[in-house]
Structures are given as structure tokens and as C-alpha cells.
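User: For documentation purposes, I need each entry recorded in a consistent format: the amino acid sequence on its own, followed directly by the corresponding C-alpha cells. There are two entries in this batch. Please keep commentary to a minimum and don't merge the entries.

Assistant: Recorded as requested. Entry 1:
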Amino acid sequence: TAVDLHDGIGQSLTGMAMSLEVARMQAPQVATVLDDVRANLRRVQERTRSMIADLSPPGLYELGLAPALQWLVVHFRSQDKLRVQLDCEVVEEAIGMDLRVLIFKLVRELLRNVVKHSGVDYAQVTVRGDRQRVRIEVVDTGRGFEWQMEMFGPSPGTFGLWSVSDRVADFGGEFSVDTSPGQGARFTLQFPLGS
């Protein structure tokens, strides 16, 4: 979020400030420069709306996990050209709000990893839940990786999966990774419900 704020909104605001300075110094061209400022402002507003939706996705709180994940699928297709097949069958009322938000964030993070590291433009997300547990799988057929090396080695890509594992454990869940170089990756998360 901090990077998005800096790179998206921060740079746009800087550009608008520079345009206003030019307008102050070049009075005859004020109308053209102000049109540019207004166009920049519209871009900032669109970016802000997109970021707000990313942080608080439509439907997650009111409609449930399945509609929010469907929105996420559309979002990844339009923003990152990642096609995601979603299969979600859960008992919505069995999943507390905190866990619902966590599952959404973890699926989003794992799909971002697919975009950044897998080398493919397709992933599958399967979510199954009853009143006792919910299980989530995020699968890609990309380049895969050496899991133990990624988990414990000095690689710069280790923090994301370590963070996922840590957040799952904090909720009493289990996280597993099935991958190897050239064989894609399967990330599985499972949480107990009703406790």
C-alpha cells in the first residue's frame, strides 16, 4: 500500500503541483495548464478508488467471501491479465469476519506471487468450507521453486511466504506448499471453524 500511495498518488500530486507552478508563471496559458491539472486530478481519483477497493473490496463485509473473491478474480484479470478460475463453496455464516478478511488478503497475496514469479497467466483458486473448517488452494503451473531454499535461504522473495505462513498460524490454521523447479506451485491453507 505504501508503494502504491507513493508511486500512484504521490507522483500524480507532484505533477499537479508542478503544473500549478507553471500556471502561475505563464498567465496566458493558464486554461491549458488547468485542463492538465484537472486530468491529473481525475487520474488520482481513479487510482484512489482502485486502492480503496483493493484494501476494502466490494462485498466482503456485506455479501461474503465468495462475492469478494469473484471481484478479486475480475480485478486480477483487468489489472494484471491473470486469468483465475475460482471455485468457491463455503458456509458464509460459519466464517467470522476476521477470518473472512484474512482469507481474502492471503488469496490476493498468493495471486500476486503468481503474477510476479510464476511466469504464467493462469491460476486456480479453490475454496471449500463447511461449519468445521475451510480449505483454500491456490495453484499455478508456472516455473515453481525450491521451497526449502526459498523458505530458509537468503533469497529476497522469502518474506512473502513466511508472512503468509505466520498469519495462517496466528489463526490456528495450517499452510503447506507443494512445488519444485519447473513443476508449478500449490499453496494450501486450512482453518478450523467454530472455535
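Entry 2:
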Amino acid sequence: MFYKIQIISKHIKLNNESFTTLTLFNFGSNWYWPFKEMAFAKNNFSKIEGLEFNKVMGTGGGSGFSLKPDFSTYAILCVWKNKDSSESFFNNHKKFNQYIEKSISTRHLELKAVKSNGYWSGYQPFKHQEIKHFESNNPVAIITRATLNWNRLISFWRSVPLASKAIEKAKGVIYYKGIGEWPFFQQATISIWENFNFVNEFAYKQKEHTEIVKKTRKNNWYKEDLFSRFTVISNTINKFKIE
């Protein structure tokens, strides 16, 4: 069985400029293969022409924000110098296409940063691709990422259920998932929203989210953190087979 759902923005055209992709792979019961591949991820996706920044990540179980990992789902984040570089990679890179072949479904996002604050492994990977003009009714993606302070781990994870409750109750959210490089202390999230109005309503009016923000500042949870908003250029879901 195969089906494909694709949503493409009519308002943004990628020219010879930087943009971001995020691909989520669901491997179903074939979880051991991607788990094993994580040990080689850095070498598998290094020294690629036009690839400016890259992370291969696992994901959280349950609602997506959880101490319990989701061993069936993995994510590959890439920042590209231009569209040509990305197309060459996706069409020809053997390891990436092996991920596709072994998965039962994928979600592939093309994103353009609107606003990005903070650092990821000492870099600001999305800052240089920010655009000022975009369609406010276009779908939006939010990526957050943090390295936790070791002495704040317990305090942080005690508050995770509150964060999960907040996103579950949010209006206008299409998809959300916890992602991260290392369990417990390097955490990230991806969420997709119908438009910026829903994002702003969640950020400034949602009670649980406001409490989380206050706790973050008060408890000094993060050693390093990043918050980035993107306009969604395309959101493609492929279902290859059913187990």
C-alpha cells in the first residue's frame, strides 16, 4: 500500500538560498535497525555538499513529550545552502534512501525560518535564512531545543506532564513530537500549526504554557536553548506499507 499527502505553500518560492528540512521516519516494529544506525549518524551525514547543519535524532513516546523513548520513530534535520544541494542529497544519498526503504511512513517538511533565537551546539543554524515577508495564514512550524543543566534534570522532567497537557489542549496544532539527540538532557520539539494566530494564542494566552515559561526562567533549566519559528513551504506525508 502507498499513499501520499502533500501540502505546498503557494506564497514562497525557494531560489538559490538557505532553507531547512526535517524528515521523520516511522519504522514500525523494525526499530532495531535505526537504533543501531544512531551510532554511525555523524559519519553517515557528514561532508555533504551544501549541507550547513545536520542532526539525527530519536523521538519521545506517548504524546511525544516523554521520558519514555519512541524507538519506532527517528528524525533527520538538515539546513541547506540551496535547493539544488538538497535535491541532490535526497535523490542520491544511499544512507538517507536506505532510511526511506526501511520505514513504513515518512513526514518530510521544507521550512523557511521567520524568527530564530538561541543556539544549538554552539551554532545559530537558522538565523541567516530568516525572511521578513511571509503569508500569515500559511502553516507554521516551531522547533525548540535545549541542553539541560545536570542539576536541574529532576525539576525539568517533573514539569513535562504540564507541557504535554498544554500542547494537547492547544487550538490549531496539526502535529507535535518530542525529538532529541540524547535522552534526558538534550531535548527538542517539533510542532506544526495552522497559522501564526494559533501559535501566538498558545504562546501568550495558554495558561499551562505560560506557567512553563515562568518555571524555565525561575529554575534555570537550560545550559543552552533555541526557539525558532518557520513558515512551512511543504509538508509531505508518505505511507509505504502497513505492518
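Summary note for entry 2:
The longest strand covers residues 222-239.
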